Amino acid sequence: MCNLEKNNVQRLLLAEYQKTGAPMQTVQTTQSKHFELEMMGSEFAKGLWNLPMADQFSRARVQPLIDELRSYPTGRFSDTVEALRLAWLLATEEPKGAGMNVSWITF
Predict the structure, then answer these.
(1) Domain residues of the chain, as ranges?
(2) With bands split at pLDDT 50, 70 and 90, how would you rate the model's confidence at 18?
């Protein structure tokens, strides 16, 4: 299963991927991303998330995410934070609460 954000330029990828006939799921996000990141931050604070830090290799792999989380939203990059947010959205049940505007589509 391929998961794609269908905002902006990603729509071009979506059109190409649809031609393959492979299973996919898309997510349309709106300005609610700051709210969603606050919810994720709350989960981090409660210890619901664990980052792999047991060895040098794991720490090196997760360090870009930690750096972006610390500098978000004013940092130079946020791609890793955005990827984590989208993975979180796709891994959770379809949001039904106020403040979250996510449209789920399965092809």
Answers:
(1) 2-106
(2) confident
